[in-house]
Write a structure and sequence with these properties.
Layout (H helix, E strand, L loop, with lengths): L13 H12 L1 H22 L4 H26 L6 H5 L3 H6 L4 H22 L1 H8 L6 H25 L5 H15 L1 H7 L3 H7 L5 H29 L7 H19 L8 H18 L7 H9 L1 H11 L3 H23 L5 H27 L7 H26 L14 H6 L6 H28 L2 H14 L4
Helix pairs in contact: 1-6, 2-3, 3-6, 3-7, 3-8, 3-9, 3-10, 6-8, 6-12, 8-9, 8-11, 8-12, 12-14, 13-14, 13-17, 14-17, 15-16, 15-22, 16-17, 17-21, 18-19, 18-21
Length: about 475
């Protein structure tokens, strides 16, 4: 006999229970759930009356995946836009900390609550898939794998939105939305324009290429989601907590693994370049925009490890000054690994082209970081300023490139070489010598990097008092022999 019922077990995190209760009762989720079921039921019933059962089956699958893709890849992640910012503006983060909830548990609870609601929508699709099975022509394994990929992608995108919601930059929340809208345009193209059966066959994992491709994609979205959640945790965590060192060590370890993968004979020479871009982009941007609010408790663990610990602070200490040296280390490791693995397989002319693109992208990140380091009066605004400067750099690349193409004045672009992304537009111009272009981008990147290193070195000198305080505190806490 059941005497007592509870909606959630007591072992679940209080933050998860709170978010699940609010999320399931929210009108936005209720309306989405009901409309989703009604539309699916109506469309599938209409498809069942079709004269051609094979075409009806493919159409039914395409409808199911498209509607679930819109719900899981756009609507549900969008619910995380204000997940952390609402707590920050409402001054409830400190109250949550008093309940002994760590920053990671707060972020994870908000993320898993939205993911659980998406999983509920996924479960309700099962009856429609059973109905679709009787239409015939169903590639069962492929459709199940594709449905799982949509759900896992939704988990990663939700993590991105939840992690970015902790920043005070509205621009950081708008950019992922634009990316979501752009991404959703590919789903109907894959499913309704003749590529449905081919894509479902690819998802059956029947050959080595499909298995490697899907596994690589899963690794990518896992890393992307983890980076976003880690960033959100560091934003709301107390200043005395160090979440940067572990994040940097993991990115450095993955970079070394990517170098090892590049040496495998079956791996194409261009593949490590893509892997490096995926790993380094979030790691470098996060490292270059971290606040430099260093406290003695953060430095003390490094000090306890003696000389190796002090040397590690140059790269692993939280804050953008150490982030500059850490970014240089990552770039050096990835560059050495790419040259060692790709030099025999890539021609010199193609290597020059790749080098121009890479240096232009790297310079395009370093320049906004340099400006943010020198023109950010508040540490909390550093990431916001970086995004503003980055957006301005992109605009100052697109407008001159359009003007030069319209008027056929490629030489006009040389006036903008102080903005490294302009070299991407210049590389496509046949009238510009590629060796001169490579030399120019190397000089520009070298100047920007030198100024950034000088700025980081000056900022490191400001840590002297904190280092002395951490050393004296460690000396007092160490018992005398």
């Amino acid at each position: 006999m059941i005497t007592h019922l509870t909606d959630f077990p007591d072992k679940l995190s209080p933050m998860l229970v709170k978010e699940l209760r609010q999320g399931l009762r929210a009108r936005s989720f209720t309306m989405l759930f009901l409309i989703f079921q009604l539309l699916l039921g109506f469309i599938l019933l209409s498809a069942s009356s079709s004269s051609s059962m094979d075409s009806a089956g493919s159409f039914a699958s395409a409808v199911i995946f498209t509607m679930f893709g819109i719900a899981a890849l756009f609507i549900q992640p969008m619910r995380g836009v204000t997940a952390l910012s609402s707590e920050i503006t409402g001054n409830t983060i400190e109250m949550m900390a008093l309940t002994r909830l760590s920053a990671s548990r707060i972020v994870f609870g908000k993320w898993i609550a939205i993911v659980s609601q998406t999983a509920l929508i996924l479960i309700t699709i099962i009856p429609y898939l059973i109905l679709r099975y009787f239409f015939g022509g169903m590639i069962l394994l492929g459709e199940l794998v594709f449905l799982s990929l949509i759900f896992l992608t939704s988990m990663a995108l939700t993590a991105v939105m939840v992690g970015m919601s902790g920043t005070n930059a509205k621009l950081a929340r708008i950019l992922p939305v634009i990316g979501f809208i752009f991404m959703l345009q590919f789903i109907p193209g894959i499913l309704f324009r003749g590529g449905f059966n081919n894509f479902m066959s690819y998802c059956t994992l029947s050959d080595w290429e499909s298995r490697v491709g899907i596994f690589s994609y899963l690794c990518f979205i896992t890393y992307l989601g983890w980076c976003a959640l880690s960033h959100g945790t560091s934003v709301i965590a107390p200043a005395a907590e160090n979440h940067s060192t572990l994040r940097r060590l993991i990115a450095l370890g993955l970079t070394c693994v990517a170098v090892a993968v590049g040496f495998h004979p079956s791996v194409d020479a261009h593949v490590p370049l893509l892997i490096f871009a995926i790993i380094l982009a979030p790691a470098v941007i996060t490292a270059l925009t971290e606040p430099s609010n260093l406290l003695p408790p953060i430095y003390t663990p490094f000090l306890k490890r003696g000389l190796p610990g002090r040397m590690a602070t140059v790269f692993l200490l939280p804050g953008w000054p150490a982030g500059v040296f850490y970014s240089i280390l990552l770039l050096a490791v990835s560059t050495a690994g790419f040259l060692a693995t790709a030099r025999p397989a890539i021609s010199p002319s193609e290597m020059t082209e790749i080098a121009i693109y890479i240096l232009a992208v790297v310079g395009g990140i370093l320049l906004p970081a340099l400006l943010a380091a020198n023109f950010s009066k508040q540490e909390s605004k550093r990431f916001t300023n970086f995004l503003v400067f980055l957006l301005a750099s992109i605009i100052l690349t697109i407008i001159p490139a359009i003007f030069a193409n319209i008027n056929n004045h490629e030489s006009y672009l040389w006036f903008f070489i102080w903005n490294p992304p302009i070299f991407i537009a210049m590389e496509s111009e046949r009238s510009i010598d590629k060796s001169q272009l490579l030399t120019a981008v190397m000089i520009v990147d070298g100047i920007i990097l030198s100024l950034l290193l000088i700025t980081a070195t000056i900022a490191f000198r400001g840590y002297r008092e904190i280092i002395k305080e951490a050393g004296s505190g460690l000396a007092h806490s160490t018992p005398a022999p």
